[in-house]
């Protein structure tokens, strides 16, 4: 995920930024034009793929680009240091919604140049929900590029053997966890570690299903509402009675499911290539996987939106990833770069992780689905590659195509994006989840603690 992709958190140390000179000297070609671009996609194979796209951009325009990798869990610290030093990049890529709101709250985005990109390429060529989630009033804060979804993964073979329905509701999830939990198999494994954005994202997914919102339309904190208390209690029940002991994070949740020791887990779409045995550094290790590396992929089902007893409709956490043009950017070359990344360079950008990069721009012209259609054919994997349809059934592929129009997000559409960004620095919801799932507090107390911490953060922003 951000998470939760294969990075974690959202918080920033300049010393940890990895400078990657992508295209030679910054004063060559393009009439001396050059820009600096930060990216959160810092895995080596993704860096190499980004550098190759940038090389084509420089060849086409003469504009030099210095690529700088910034780990997502260091973003706020690096941003603060760079802003204080007057050394902001021109463009920031791989930017989740909370980071976009952090930039905007500190007046660090160039909304005019951002709008110019959208106008030049055509607003009607984007998923409209993606534009909505990256807009504040009439100001476009960032240029949406792709999206990933949070999913509930479950062992379809075990569910079928036990005659259980797909776990789409609180009741179904609890019943399945109880039925399948044993000394060898946890009914459910999910994130509980404090100080981890993955924990907050996982609980966000669970809580939205029950109609739990962080704030209401008036901007008032509502984490202590009955819907949120019930969500904390549901997650406490799951993790206390049908899971594994100890704090669980992005790596241990994956490891439990990959080892065949969990009947259900929550992770993002970025898990799918690893689940199919296509990445050597994260291979399934279940007993059946020894003879058949694709066993788990063949026997895994996914659920997108979930519903709790107090929820009015199914809901799903999802992330929209954007390109942000900063307030200090060289406007013209920055606009050219972002437009290139959403046009000539777009398919190559999506191709290095298509399992987690559903295109937010559907096609090059209004009504076209060319980018989505091409995305469906892109191979996934790192050490081994193949199309998703080779490993997963049509129901999984359909789930992957759940676009941003189906996403729910705390605070963003209520105009409290700056609160969301700030809360990810302190992660009070993750702390409350850790407290309630470890048995330290009850659900009402956990909800009250989260709400009080969020009110303090909100007050500090005024």
Notes on the structure:
This protein is α+β, with helices and mostly antiparallel strands. It folds into two domains: 14-148 and 319-386, 3-Layer(aba) Sandwich (D-Maltodextrin-Binding Protein, domain 2); 149-316 and 406-460, Periplasmic binding protein-like II (D-Maltodextrin-Binding Protein, domain 2, 3-Layer(aba) Sandwich), CATH 3.40.190. Helices cover 40% and strands 13% of the residues. It is built from 19 helices and 13 strands. The protein has helices at 44-61, 75-84, 97-105, 111-121, 128-133, 156-162, 170-180, 197-209, 226-241, 250-258, 272-275, 295-298, 331-341, 346-351, 370-375, 394-400, 417-426, 428-437, 443-460; strands at residues 18-21, 34-39, 64-69, 91-95, 135-136, 139-140, 143-155, 264-268, 300-303, 318-325, 358-359, 379-380, 386-387. Strands 1, 2, 3, 4, 7, 8, 9, 10 and 11 form a nine-stranded mixed beta sheet that branches. A two-stranded antiparallel sheet has the order 5-6. A two-stranded antiparallel sheet has the order 12-13. It is globular. It starts with 17 loop residues before the first strand and ends with a helix.
How many DSSP helices? 19
Shape: globular
Spell out the CATH superfamily of the largest domain. Periplasmic binding protein-like II
Number of strands: 13
Topology:
Blueprint: E1 18-21, E2 34-39, H1 44-61, E3 64-69, H2 75-84, E4 91-95, H3 97-105, H4 111-121, H5 128-133, E5 135-136, E6 139-140, E7 143-155, H6 156-162, H7 170-180, H8 197-209, H9 226-241, H10 250-258, E8 264-268, H11 272-275, H12 295-298, E9 300-303, E10 318-325, H13 331-341, H14 346-351, E11 358-359, H15 370-375, E12 379-380, E13 386-387, H16 394-400, H17 417-426, H18 428-437, H19 443-460
């Amino acid at each position: 995920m951000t998470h939760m992709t294969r990075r974690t958190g959202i918080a920033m140390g300049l010393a940890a930024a990895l400078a990657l000179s992508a295209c030679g000297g910054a004063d060559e070609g393009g009439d001396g034009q050059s820009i600096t671009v930060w990216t959160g996609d810092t895995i080596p194979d993704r860096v190499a793929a980004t550098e190759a796209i940038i090389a084509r951009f420089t060849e086409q325009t003469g504009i030099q680009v210095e690529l700088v990798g910034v780990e997502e869990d260091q973003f706020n610290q690096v941003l603060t240091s760079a802003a204080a030093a007057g050394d902001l990049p021109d463009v920031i890529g791989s930017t989740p919604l909370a980071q976009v709101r952090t930039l905007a709250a500190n007046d660090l985005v160039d909304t005019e140049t951002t709008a110019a990109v959208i106008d030049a390429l055509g607003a009607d060529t984007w998923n409209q929900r993606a534009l909505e989630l990256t807009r504040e009033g009439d100001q476009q804060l960032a240029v949406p590029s792709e999206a990933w979804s949070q999913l509930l993964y479950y062992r379809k073979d075990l569910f079928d053997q036990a005659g259980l329905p797909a776990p789409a509701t609180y009741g179904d999830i609890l019943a399945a966890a109880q039925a399948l939990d044993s000394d060898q198999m946890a009914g459910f494994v999910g994130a509980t570690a404090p100080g981890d954005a993955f924990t907050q994202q996982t609980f966000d997914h669970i809580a939205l299903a029950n109609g739990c919102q962080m704030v209401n339309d008036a901007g008032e904190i509502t984490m202590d509402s009955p819907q949120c208390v019930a969500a904390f209690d549901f997650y406490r029940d799951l993790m206390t009675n049908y899971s594994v002991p100890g704090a669980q994070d992005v790596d241990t949740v994956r490891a439990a499911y990959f080892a065949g020791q969990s009947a259900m887990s929550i992770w993002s779409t970025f898990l799918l290539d690893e689940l199919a045995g296509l990445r050597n550094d994260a291979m399934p290790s279940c007993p059946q996987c020894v003879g058949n590396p694709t066993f788990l992929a063949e026997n895994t089902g996914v659920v997108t939106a979930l519903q709790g007893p107090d929820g009015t409709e199914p809901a799903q956490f999802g992330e929209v990833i954007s390109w942000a043009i900063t307030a200090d950017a060289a406007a013209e070359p920055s606009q050219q770069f972002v437009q290139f990344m959403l046009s000539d360079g777009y398919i190559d950008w999506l191709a290095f992780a298509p399992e987690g990069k559903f295109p937010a721009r559907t096609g090059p012209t209004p009504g076209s689905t060319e980018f989505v259609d091409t995305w469906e054919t892109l191979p996934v994997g790192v050490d081994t590659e193949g199309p998703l349809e080779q490993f997963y059934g049509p129901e999984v592929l359909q789930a992957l195509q759940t676009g941003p129009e189906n996403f729910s997000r705390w605070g963003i559409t209520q105009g409290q994006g700056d609160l969301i960004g700030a809360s990810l620095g302190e992660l009070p919801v993750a702390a409350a989840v850790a407290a309630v799932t470890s048995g330290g507090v009850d659900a009402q107390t956990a909800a009250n603690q989260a709400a009080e911490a969020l009110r303090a953060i909100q007050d500090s922003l005024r």
